[in-house]
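Duplicate of #3305? Posting structure anyway:
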């Protein structure tokens, strides 16, 4: 009985792996455009900020690994050398000036080594270079609305696709949306983020961009996508029953394709006169 259950679980996992792998279009690379099933670690970087984030993470891994090994070795050494059996008459030493200076100065040096790239990364994430394109993302329970402030006609909502529609359109399950944000490659994109109801969070992991969407607050982040293709993200702030069903999709295209999209989108969305902030996805329509 237990074996049967385990077998069914493994079979389901393998099946879901292949469903996802097959469903996704050729130009989308697992681990770059979306997280590979079973993937550990970060998605690959598609922006300078994410490259810096991964490099900083790797530096920290070296440092914490060295500290962990060093502390473990010292503890094992102390347990073997200074236990009651091996060392029945303990030393009465209470101070060692040299040792105390070393164990104060060395951690300070380690913290400085960490602080320099850490503050540099924080600064680079926070200070937005002169933007080529501005996109405004508005979180709603439970979908995202987008505006291009420089193109007043481009206002649209992006709703999640059903599993069948996502597979048909070549998107990973739960990550496909009916409309997508389109941006040019190698340009600075400023993303203004806010919300209409509760706190959401807008993110695309491959760009290293993640920021809270807070009602009444206009937050800003930025990214510069260096590789064309479709990138996926998900709302990253618990925002209600359908929190897991408001994905984010950004398509990075060439400058010429972007210009063509602007014209096409302005025409298509100009007739979109749905009032802002009143269209709510229902919990039922997702679970059905
Ligand atoms: Cu949300």
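Output from current build:
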């Amino acid at each position: 009985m237990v074996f049967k259950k385990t077998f069914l679980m493994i079979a389901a996992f393998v099946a879901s792996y292949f469903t996802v792998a097959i469903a996704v279009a050729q130009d989308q690379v697992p681990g770059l455009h979306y997280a590979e099933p079973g993937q550990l670690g970060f998605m690959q970087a598609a922006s300078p900020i994410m490259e810096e984030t991964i490099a900083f993470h790797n530096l920290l891994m070296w440092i914490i690994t060295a500290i962990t090994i060093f502390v473990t070795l010292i503890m094992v050494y102390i347990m073997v050398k200074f236990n009651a059996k091996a060392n029945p008459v303990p030393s009465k030493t209470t101070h060692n000036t040299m040792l105390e200076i070393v164990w104060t100065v060395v951690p300070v040096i380690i913290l400085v080594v960490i602080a320099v790239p850490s503050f540099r990364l924080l600064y680079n994430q926070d200070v937005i270079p002169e933007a080529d394109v501005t996109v405004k993302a508005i979180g709603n329970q439970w979908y995202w609305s987008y505006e291009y402030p420089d193109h007043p006609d481009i206002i649209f909502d992006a709703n999640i696709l059903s599993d069948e529609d996502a597979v048909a359109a070549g998107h990973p399950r739960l990550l496909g949306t009916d409309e997508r944000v389109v941006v040019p490659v190698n340009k600075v994109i400023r993303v203004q983020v806010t919300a209409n109801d509760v706190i959401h969070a807008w993110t695309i992991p491959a760009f290293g961009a993640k920021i809270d969407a807070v009602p009444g607050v206009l937050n800003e982040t930025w990214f510069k996508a260096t590789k064309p293709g479709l990138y996926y993200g998900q709302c990253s702030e618990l925002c209600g029953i359908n929190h897991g069903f408001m994905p984010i999709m950004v398509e990075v295209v060439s400058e010429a394709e972007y210009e063509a999209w602007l014209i096409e989108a302005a025409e298509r969305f100009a007739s979109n006169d749905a009032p802002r902030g009143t269209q709510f996805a229902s919990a039922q329509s997702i679970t059905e």
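Confirmed duplicate; merging threads. The chain has two domains: 48-87+96-126, 133-273. The pocket of copper (II) ion is lined by residues 139, 200, 235, 237, 239, 243, 246 (CB under 6 Å).
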